[in-house]
Amino acid sequence: MTREEWLRISAALSLGGLLPNNLLAELATSSELHRSDFGKDFVWGTATAAYQIEGAWNLDGKSESIWDHFTHHRKAKIKTRENGDVACDFYHRYESDIELMRQMNIPAFRFSLAWTRILPDGTGKVNQKGIDFYHRVIDKCLKENVAPWITCYHWDLPQILEDKGGWANRDSIRWFEEYVDVIAKAYGDKVKNWMVFNEPMAFVPLGYLIGVHAPGHINFSKFYKAVHNVVMCHGAGGRIIRNNVKGANIGTTFSCSHVDAKNDKPANTRAAARADAFINRLFLDPVMGLGYPKADLPACKHIEKHMQPGDEQLMAFDFDFVGLQNYSRMVVKKLALIPIIHVVNVPPKKLGHDITDMGWEVYPEGIYHLLKKYNSYKNIRKIIVTENGAAFPDEVVNGEVNDVKRLQFIKDYLAQVLRAKREGVKVDGYFIWSFMDNFEWAEGYRPRFGIVHTDFATQKRTIKASGKWFSEFLKNQ
Ligand code: GCO
Predict the structure, then answer these.
(1) Ligand 1 atom index nearest CA of 440
(2) Separation in Å, CA 337 to CA 207, 216, 272, 334, 382
């Protein structure tokens, strides 16, 4: 039996904890995947987000964000009743965290900026201490040779703007322009890689339609308005960065899942097309200049009602790259009573594959199909996988975390990325979600996505076996 086979079998039997770290490290070097297979311009990194790691929620002039408000005032919405007040305390530990990235040979760090540190009133007066914090983070990255990749918005709207209607208020386009203008001017000399949004298909429906994320609304009208305003902000944000940052590499990120119909009954095939239009195309298509996908998703008419003359052109932007974020797949069938999409998911545990701690199906081939799909958009110039990863229960045993399942997950997904690349798909980067375990939104701290373990009581970081593998992989060019 080869070591590779042994690893697969022990992972399947959940024997991960028994595998010694030295074997895992050896496996990394004997694995079929090599960094050089992806080409020398391929970008490698890990991703995080401000609210999930920073803590220091009310320090140095920072105001309350919708996530501060949500976790403090609607505690029952968070499964563990926890919040991001401290999180990974990155605000105070960014230096050692970025040093750790360098020690792990990780060339790029994707992180987001907290709007509430920069413009505590949402608009207007700039908070110099907030500006300075991100200068320190960026300078540290540059010093350690870790390229900073900035996400402008990863879900933490200033609460003061939510009180004025948040993303459902068309003024949000103006607010967002002001914010992006400030950060592009502040950091544009030092940072060339920018992403306008993180996953609109997550924060808009989860926050305005289903109410499970901040700001917690269950409101169709707010949802439709918010979709259109956020679509408009993609173009607005992209143009502001283009005008302010010389030589910028501008992208934005979209969550996506490969969608399969439960069977080939025509009603289910149409259901899969609707789910695909909703989950994968509602934001991507208009931003790529194709308008809302109303042929497959009739509910788009409720969004189009909010379009004003000239919006059609303004929604689109010529991004240098599109960030593809994938974790799992969806298998669906028709269910008329579900609003908007008239579709229901087959429960992932019925699909016969391994399931992560989030209850998501492990389905590496899905990322291959999505890469092919994105590649078929003629306006997508380049694709970067800006998030991929998995939560599994981890344990520190004798100072080590043998996260065999995560390691296998990453290798299997990467193999599919390589398969797509070899078939000519213009994919040019891969970021693991996440650098370290952090605050997983409504799930609290329980699901661990990091390749570095965070002990939230002591803030001790421990590189997991997956992290050791990644750093070996990155070293061997
Ligand atoms: C998202 C976000 C991350 C999550 C990650 C795991 O996709 O939801 O970008 O903030 O933590 O995806 O769920």
Answers:
(1) 11
(2) 21, 22, 16, 9, 38
The residue whose CA is least distant from atom 10 of ligand 1 is 49
Distance CA 29, CA 476 (A): 8
Residues pairing with 453 in the sheet: 462
Task: Please give the distance, rounded to the nearest whole angstrom, from the Cα atom of residue 47 to the centre of ligand 1.
Answer: 9
For ligand 1, say whether the CB of 106 is within 6 Å of any of its atoms.
Answer: no
Q: What is the reported pTM?
A: 0.94
Cis ω before 112 (30° cut-off from 0): no
Domain 37-475 CATH class label: alpha beta
Distance 49 CA to ligand 1 centre (A): 9
- Rounded Cα–Cα distance for residues 46 and 393 (Å): 20
Per-position pLDDT tens, the chain of length 477: 444 544 454 443 333 334 455 554 444 444 589 999 999 999 999 999 999 999 999 999 999 999 999 999 999 999 999 999 999 999 999 999 999 999 999 999 999 999 999 999 999 999 999 999 999 999 999 999 999 999 999 999 999 999 999 999 999 999 999 999 999 999 999 999 999 999 999 999 999 999 999 999 999 999 999 999 999 999 999 999 999 999 999 999 999 999 999 999 999 999 999 999 999 999 999 999 999 999 999 999 999 999 999 999 999 999 999 999 999 999 999 999 999 999 999 999 999 999 999 999 999 999 999 999 999 999 999 999 999 999 999 999 999 999 999 999 999 999 999 999 999 999 999 999 999 999 999 999 999 999 999 999 999 999 999 999 999 999 987
Q: What residue segments make up the domains of the chain, in order of their start?
A: 1-30, 37-475
Angstrom distances, CA of residue 28 to CA of 37, 315, 473:
15, 44, 7
